[in-house]
Amino acid sequence: MKKSLATVLSAVMILTLAACGGNTAAPATTAAPATEAPKAEATEAAAAETEAPAAEASDEGPIKIGYVGDLTGGTALWGTAGQYGAELAAKDINEAGGIMGREVVIVPMDGKGDPSDSVSALKKLIDDEHVVASIGTNFSSCNIPMASVADEKKVPIIATAASNELVTVDENGNLHPYSFRLCFIDPYIGEVIGSYAAGTLGYKTAALFTVAGNTNSESVGAIIKDVFTSKGGEIVIEEQCQEADMDYRAQLAKIGAKNPDVIFVLMNDYAKLATFAKQARELGIESMLMGHDGWDSAQLAGEAGGALEGCLYISRIGFNTPEAAAFGDRVTELYKMESREAECLFTRDGVYWIKDAIERAGSADPTAIRDALESTEKFEGLIGTLVEDPATHNPAMACALFECHGDAFEYKGIVEAE
Amino acid sequence: MFFQQLITGISVGGIYALLATGYSLIYSLLDFSNWSHGEFAMVGAYIAIVFSTMLPFPFLVAAMIGVAGGALVSWLTEKVVYRRIRSTGGPNMFLMIGAMGLSSVFQQAANLIFTGQYRSYPFKLPVSTIKIAGAYIGVLDLISLIITAIILIFLMYIINKTQFGLNVRGIACNQWGAKILGVKVDSCISKVFILAGCLAGVAGILYGAKYNVWPTMGNIGLKAFISSVLGGLGSVPGAILGAVLLGIIETLVSAYVSSSLRDFFSFALLIVILLVKPSGLLGVDVQDKA
């Protein structure tokens, strides 16, 4: 009896592990509102017909903008920064008179950084909260399934740092009409990293380290590999870890044996990146470590304790303009955050982009907002100037190079694909 | 490179061992797997974080308070939950279900109190390493291994050479018999929970020092459970052996097969052990072990 029970329990554990995929740090549970919704709104939402178009609820009263982010999981640092950025942007807009005289309300919902939870969160925002548009997430793996929901519900969503191509177009190349983004796409950043490493830096051999099952990590890695090899470089070893891993020494020992000039480390979690770097140095690996926008964290360099000294990553301009720095400081101070996180800039720009779209459309109807977002010729945000491509919904934006010195990464300048 | 992987495997297995012994001790007395055991490690790690970063305590003092906190919470779960379930005469399945519930409660509570962000201890050890026979081992890993070894040797001494250890082994062998012979069973079980909580607290603090602290870090308890099954549920030396073996197996699979298949191998091994040798490597009483 006990043997049978133990066997069954073990099988359940295996299935649970498989279901958790790469992210055991954020167990899959039903998405829940991140903050308590006002009772009046909750009652209104409960009374509303599930299939009632969001536009009906958006004609008068406050304009509700949703936000889906990881508010409680392992990457909650970004998720909460995104929530605060959106809320501060809404506060600023409201103090300046709102959007066409109407108050803006941000409705945050916890997607836990998990695809199924993020989809549930978006559905709740649209069906229960009647948002006219939604911002988030910063994960491609979450926004790819969310894009279909946005199309079905006809409510535009704006991904922040989700850079996989499939966030705005499906596998057949068909546009998701209601899915937008605020960042450049994986091929672009992968192309810049690969060509900069092989060209300007002159590296000949490289190791590629990606996170298995992580769409962003694997797709950027694939582009880097293509570009780096096309420019004469050689990928001498490719290794992967799982999302929840905290120990990389088994893979690093193999990488160290190949002694590559550079290791492209495509991870999206600062604590794990710092651990990776420390373990690499502990194993005597002196190769350059290079990364992408997943390295965007004010805590990374300090957490790595010197293991990333001189290492590079390519990402957005971030807080390197006075306006962006000032906004980041306000978020940090107002919400008692330990450090500035770039996610607050994305969500701030997301809110202002929606404001811009509503004002140009003269309506807060979700479809009108969508049309206006798509026809954006130029939007000046804190993360740079966004020029929208209506065919792909992929904006053109500049890339920036950052180098680690001491406890911080320093902005080195603009880089483009060579 | 093989020697390097072996060193890494032992280092990984060391943390598993601290938790696995706690699993085994509790299983040996109560015949149930305490699924919330990994959370005691998390609680200990967070308490050390609070005392070393939010309160002005030196880290070593904070670490000791963290270990005591792990023990206290472990003892409280026995007192408040498990003992009551036992007193009602419910099946062991109820204990296991209670443990699963406790695990979720602890994780959610940590999420609410500390948010999901990673927390780190106030000290930042420089990245330093020692080379042994061509293999590198980090100083923090070495310190962690030495602490683990000392604690496990001390634990073996307690179990094998003290009256308390004799009582524990007596209860593990025959609870009613031990009671008739004058052993205070409930008191002894409480002390075992305190001991297991201490071990988990140390594991949590060492794990936190190496990889940071976050609400679901106690999920490592799953690996400790596999270790204790591999070594023989209820056997403390078996748990240590199982943990080190599992650490080595995981590292070798990651290095020579695929890191994506590492957990597949670990859990498949669990199934194989249960089917082929349910008593584990060092377990004795087959029917009582699994």
Key phrases:
heterodimer; A: 418 residues; alpha/beta; Rossmann fold; 2 domains; five-stranded parallel sheet; 14 helices; 43% helix; B: 290 residues; two-stranded antiparallel sheet; 12 helices; globular; disordered C terminus
CATH-level-2 architecture of chain B: Orthogonal Bundle
Helical coverage of chain A, percent range: 40-55%
- Identify the overall geometry of chain B: globular
Domain count of chain B: the total is 1
Instruction: Briefly note the CATH topology name of the largest domain in chain A.
Output: Rossmann fold
* Number of β-strand runs of chain B: 2
Q: Largest sheet of chain A, if any?
A: 7 strands, mixed
Rg of chain A, nearest Å: 22 Å
Output the strand order for the largest sheet of chain A: 7-6-8-9-10-13-14
What is the terminal-to-terminal distance of chain A? 66 Å
Estimate nothing, just give the exact number of structural domains of chain A: 2
Give the percentage of residues in beta strands of chain B. Answer: under 5%
Count of DSSP E strands of chain A? 14
The first-level CATH class name of chain B? Mainly Alpha
Looking at the structure, the CATH topology of chain B is ABC transporter involved in vitamin B12 uptake, BtuC
- Order of secondary-structure elements of chain A: HHHEHEHEHEEHEHEHEHEHEHHHEEEE
Question: Helices and strands of chain A: which structural class?
Answer: alpha/beta
How much of the sequence of chain A is in beta strands? 15-25%
Distance between the termini of chain B: 37 Å
Largest interface: A-B, 52 and 54 residues
